[in-house]
Write a structure and sequence with these properties.
195 residues, mainly alpha, 8 helices
Amino acid sequence: MSKLAINSRVAATHRGRAAGAAGVAVEPAPRWAQLAAKAAALSTVPSGVWRIVFGFGVPVGFSGATAAAFEAHQPGWGTVYCVVLSALTEALAFLTLGLVRSWGLVAPRWIPLIGGRRVQPLAAIVPALLGSAILTSLGLEGLFGRWAHNLADPDAPHGFAGLVMTAAYLPLVAWGPLLGAVTVDYARRTLWRRR
């Protein structure tokens, strides 16, 4: 048996014991689900970085009246908006990891009121599936129309700036489908397995 297989088996046993200690017997998430959850959490980072840079007033390619409107609030409330939106987006994406980790089965002790208690599977599954559906539809809408329409605006970033903005926002298209796949696996392990 290879060293990687042994380490993987030890980690799975450790996760199983942690969940078992809290009274929750659930098989560990498969490797593909763990990777998909990590990818979902990371899918929001490029757009968040781009948005924060933009929020601090760094020119990112907007021109004309659009640039003037942004410059009136950056730095300022526009900066706060960009930072808070980026942090909120990343926090929501980070929750995907809970579907493959022990804190998706038992709430961490430091959380007030629910710390140390078992997470009811539907309390995670329903919002995650709803979020996945919304994110997937927004991603498809962006891919098949809205993004091209926005870039056609004469004040929008063009050339290299448009390419950078597109590269920053394109990973968001994967967030919804990745979240959906991880949620279905979580449901399989927590709901369907008990029947």
